Amino acid sequence: MRLAFVDDDYGEIKKLTTMIDKELHGTVYSSCTKQLFSTGETFLSVWKPGMYDIVFLDIFMDQLTGVDVARQIRKTDASVKIIFCTTSNEFASESYCVDASFYLVKPFSQNMVHTMVQKLIKVDSRLSLFITLPNDRKLYLRDIIYGEYINHKIFIHTKSRNDISFRMSFGNFLELISPFSFLISCCKGIIVNLYEVINKENNCFILSDNSTIPISRRKIKEINNVYADFIFEKMKDKMLNDEAN
């Protein structure tokens, strides 16, 4: 899981990251990566869709506010979770307009951070799905960006940047991941995680790490249908979660 923190108060963010680490310790999310930005402008200068799973935004910052940054994010990424950090509830209505997942009020408390983490885990329980590799290592499926078969080995490129390789035939690997419809083989020797697709153009998938994966000509119609179904189900899940909250 990839986290970004945008806040001009370094001390408060360090407190928050410590609290989050405490909540995630011993869970499948404990290896998350964190990046800190002191201004909205600095964050937006490097921002790309799919770059982070969660963005924490301080609302009261010089020049661009957290709400301004959130609006820019939503122009290109509807999936990333946005969490506002602020000393006031004044901007609660604006947080709704940019589909914020949570509203953390400063000073942060461990109880509030616990509530936030539990809510996020409940919303996306699929983050805990895993398969067991030949060496008994767990591979968490939502950590996968894509995988490729080279020289009788499977190479898995992950969001946590802990890339994995193991010896297995591509056919056996496809059988292993077959219950999970968001992992698909779009061309010979390659699988992609549809959750990590940020764009589709010229019969290629553009992934969250900027990799470009071609779609086999023989599979274009099939893959287009699978991807359309995935997007539809993702939108339906989001609507159900919004209604539940």
Automatic annotation (TrEMBL):
Q: Which residues carry this modification: 4-aspartylphosphate?
A: D58
Domain of life where this protein originates = Bacteria
Classification via InterPro entries: CheY-like_superfamily, LytR-like, LytTR_DNA-bd_dom, Sig_transdc_resp-reg_receiver
Q: Which residues form the HTH LytTR-type domain?
A: 141-229
Molecular function per GO: DNA binding; phosphorelay response regulator activity
> What SMART domains does its record include?
LytTR (SM00850), REC (SM00448)
Gene3D superfamilies associated with the record = 3.40.50.2300, LytTr DNA-binding domain
A Pfam family the protein falls into: LytTR
Residue ranges of every copy of the Response regulatory domain listed in the record: 2-121
User: Which keywords does UniProt give here?
Assistant: Phosphoprotein
As for what it does, the entry says: May play the central regulatory role in sporulation. It may be an element of the effector pathway responsible for the activation of sporulation genes in response to nutritional stress. Spo0A may act in concert with spo0H (a sigma factor) to control the expression of some genes that are critical to the sporulation process.
Q: What is this protein called?
A: Stage 0 sporulation protein A homolog
Source organism of the structure: Eubacterium ventriosum ATCC 27560
